[in-house]
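Appendix C: a fully annotated inverse folding record. The material below is reproduced so that readers can follow the format used throughout the book. The structure is listed first as tokens, followed by the designed sequence.
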């Protein structure tokens, strides 16, 4: 484990389980997230990564287990409350509104009910958030796109906007679900650079990612899931050469 020293975890996940009928999607998962780190989460399709994030982030109620944020039990707390407690997220599927401009997308994301599509439909006027929008636009180098409707952006630019929207609530920890998914190589460089910049400013990340090269380059530690469980947590190097990880991915087509 690199760079954690004696730091106390900012997020403690303990023994989370979640079933859908007979499918045990997540089975007794425990891990910590340390302040300032980028934790990568990988694992074959269907191994429970998104379900795990949903249980942590209030989208799903876990059958079992606890989540502690900055020492406080926040298990089952709503996404809105968690966002107010400094926990932000983006989803595996894009949450941007095609017919809204880039700044309007950012604005809606920052208004009270962050993170749900419905709430973003009920956009309210700028509540003095213009400055914040400008900051995020600048931070994400989206200045040349401020007049564009999100639907006119490339997929990679939309992914970047989606991440920027996740940052509007001023979170300390951000959970991302496949930020590199479907993004072309040149935009990937941008996504990577923005994430590293934000991390350099002290924002902690937990990132599910299918693109191994991408996540191995930016993550301090990697959590590998297989069949709903934690297979291992280690450095990119440890993970790369672990036979259990290679075995878990055998038979995966993509
Ligand atoms: N809402 C749901 N209802 C029923 N089964 C689900 C639901 N969400 C996920 N699953 C199942 O749970 C398992 C884990 O899915 P998921 O968490 O999406 O995996 P991953 O994100 O690692 O690809 C899969 O077998 C999936 O089909
Ligand atoms: Mg998923």
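Designed amino acids, in order:
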């Amino acid at each position: 484990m690199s760079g954690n020293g004696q730091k106390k975890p900012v997020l403690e996940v303990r023994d989370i389980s979640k079933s859908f009928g007979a499918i045990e999607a997540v089975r007794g998962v425990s891990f910590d997230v340390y302040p300032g780190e980028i934790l990568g989460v990988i694992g074959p399709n269907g191994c429970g990564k998104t379900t795990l994030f949903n249980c942590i982030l209030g989208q799903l109620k876990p059958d079992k287990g606890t989540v502690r944020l900055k020492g406080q039990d926040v298990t089952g707390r709503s996404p809105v409350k968690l966002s107010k407690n400094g926990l932000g997220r983006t989803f595996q599927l894009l949450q941007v509104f095609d017919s809204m401009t880039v700044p309007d997308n950012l604005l809606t994301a920052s208004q009270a009910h962050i993170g749900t599509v419905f709430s973003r439909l009920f956009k309210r006027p700028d509540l003095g958030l213009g400055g914040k929008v400008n900051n995020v636009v600048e931070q994400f180098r989206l200045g040349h796109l401020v007049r564009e409707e999100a639907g006119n952006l490339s997929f990679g630019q939309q992914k970047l906007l989606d991440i920027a929207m996740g940052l509007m609530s001023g979170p300390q920890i951000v959970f991302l679900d496949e930020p590199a998914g479907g993004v072309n190589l040149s935009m990937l460089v941008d996504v990577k650079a923005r994430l590293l910049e934000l991390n350099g400013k002290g924002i902690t990340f937990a990132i599910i990612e299918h693109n191994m090269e991408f996540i191995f380059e930016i993550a301090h530690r990697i959590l590998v899931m297989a069949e709903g469980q934690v297979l291992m947590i280690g450095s990119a190097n440890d993970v790369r050469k672990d036979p259990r990880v290679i075995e878990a991915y055998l038979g995966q087509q993509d």
